[in-house]
């Protein structure tokens, strides 16, 4: 499973991959290694060209964890190593309260970590890997076409091969490509999905949550030192809004402010922004710096957060949606990319199991993957409350402690949910949530037993004392 | 409100209307009469051209009722008259049981009718009306551009005026148009909606129901006579599937078969089709004819049915979705077009009330219209059960009779739901459903009272008889 050798019996097959983001690039690499001829289309210009370097609108640092790493390794062990060389491990959350106190809450039972990485950097590494593969002369080269907008998708003739119409963003010339099949990783606002819906009776839902994010930054200290612990994901939870910060290799932190749109839009003058941060994030403000805060807050775009649900994800063996195009999610469980990469790994495994019969594999994927995707979408949404509020609640912390205690006591037989999602890529999301439900029931029973036991003991004790002293 | 005079203070404003279907054409006409300069774009070729006459894939005959007529009259009294000249009134459902018996169930309390009309015919009439307006020289002519595909929509600059990129389907040349605002009526698979979602945090859901439809037809009898009663909507309800038929002016009926996809796809040979119809629709089969049935069943496309939910419908005062693009619905309440026309009327009224300030009007529309649209979407879906199953249930028929009885008894104070939806365009959908809930509670209490009263009487009577005869 880990060493990828070409098992593909039908080497001449041509595949279009739509979208050269993280999942699209990895898909192109994976399919090339399976022996397919791949053309990779991207709407934007090459992000590595200085002339076209655009403001990356999606630069929340990513936390790569077990599912993402597993998929990278599945595609290429060396690629995984290269990527992991450039990450910063985060072993827990660092909670900053309003008085400036910090408290560490570890993610794993044994010091496991999720790994902070810059999205743009990872994307460029994946594109570089394509160049390396192409230069190696092994297999068909991957053709990467930037600045190409998909404006139509149809499935024509007896074969129903996907026919993709592309417009060059500079010349405005149309080009038409026919493939054996396409894999679309063109993001939450997927154009492919739009056209696919003319062929597939696809249940589809997109839901925006009333949360806006604004990207901020904490500069590095003297000599590229970290001003706060680099091995934590820092959170300033304030219930209805929060600030977070993830470390970068150069000593800086990428920070993000989350709040309701109403609140974010009401902070529209320098004074309002400053006063708000002074009141709620005094230590955060010192780290960010006043001028830096004001300029970022006013100039950086306000981002929206959307959840995407589809079912099914494919049209026969001819087209399939993957990544955010199929299951875009809010970032609060740090699973967006990890889940997208995992989806690719699972899809590839199904292709292998079905002897590269795409119709069987794609149908199986739609059928079996759906429940896992629905679970992680729900977890991602629910985790906003956990991050912004629950982490400060006594009941939450007590439960978490019992959970960790049992996790260590019953090593391997009791798995905290976070451990299963982030550090146990071998457990499907849907199975993780079933195990968690069972465990939570046990904890609740334990709590009830402790409650009853305590009351019983209290009654006994007071009776004893009563009998002793009151007569 | 009925006579349309231009109240528009800003006569130079240019509007793009996307989609020249029923709602799009009526929108173009309405806005022209308000003094706007309108360009109307349509993906397909002019349906009136013989050379391009395509198979109309959506030829379920429509039932126009009060809300649709009200909107037509609002735009143009004469146009409404022209349209109503060509309809066939249907005063009730004619239920065909499996033995060939027919039973009429009237729609209204006083012989009100919904009106059968061919979708294609109505569309052409609306296009002809545009030609008439253009020739009249009154106001700005409406420019109608056929064969134009929308491939981008953006809102650029300070003004954020909508910029629409169009590709000509023959020459493949791109053209760019800037408008003051656009109204999009480009159907359930709206391309505009796709691009709009990059600007609007739009909650969006599309749900396919597991029902497939196949268009059939019942030819006219000798001398263009009707073979069954022309003033009914004929239904052959068979629980999990059904056949319906709506009259045409030439003596024929447009008939539609609805079933699960599995069933429809299993009827894949001449024999299977024939045997199925012989078993379940014996009288229907005689009307359609065996050869006609087989050729229609095999050659006509299998249609899918989708429900579209959005919220909000607009981007500031710059773009708004209307009709199926905003609220596509299954055809079972006969409200799709009626609701789309009503949406237009309400939007126009809000424009007038807000002195043609589109931002205020569009925001108000999104806010106030949403609850009504959600109600009719739910009613449309629920009505499949009513048409295919409930109409044969004794409890349903009893309740319906009580409902009609009270409706006639308490004239105007008690309104059956169907009456409110189809014949009382002055009652918003959401209000109709509130009234219905109140009335149904009363009916349930009545039933309970009758039940208790009956038991009480039975006990009294049996006690009386017991005391008389048993001692």
TrEMBL record, chains A, B:
Example of a GO biological process term: 'de novo' NAD+ biosynthetic process from L-tryptophan
EC number: 1.14.13.9
Reaction catalysed by this enzyme: L-kynurenine + NADPH + O2 + H(+) = 3-hydroxy-L-kynurenine + NADP(+) + H2O
Cofactor: FAD
GO cellular component term, pick one: mitochondrial outer membrane
Subcellular location field: Mitochondrion outer membrane
Domain FAD-binding: 153-371
HAMAP family registered for this protein in UniProt: Kynurenine_monooxygenase (MF_01971)
Similarity comment text for this entry: Belongs to the aromatic-ring hydroxylase family. KMO subfamily.
Function, as annotated: Catalyzes the hydroxylation of L-kynurenine (L-Kyn) to form 3-hydroxy-L-kynurenine (L-3OHKyn). Required for synthesis of quinolinic acid.
Record protein name field: Kynurenine 3-monooxygenase
Highest classification ranks of the organism: Eukaryota, Fungi, Dikarya, Ascomycota, Saccharomycotina
Gene expressing this chain: BNA4
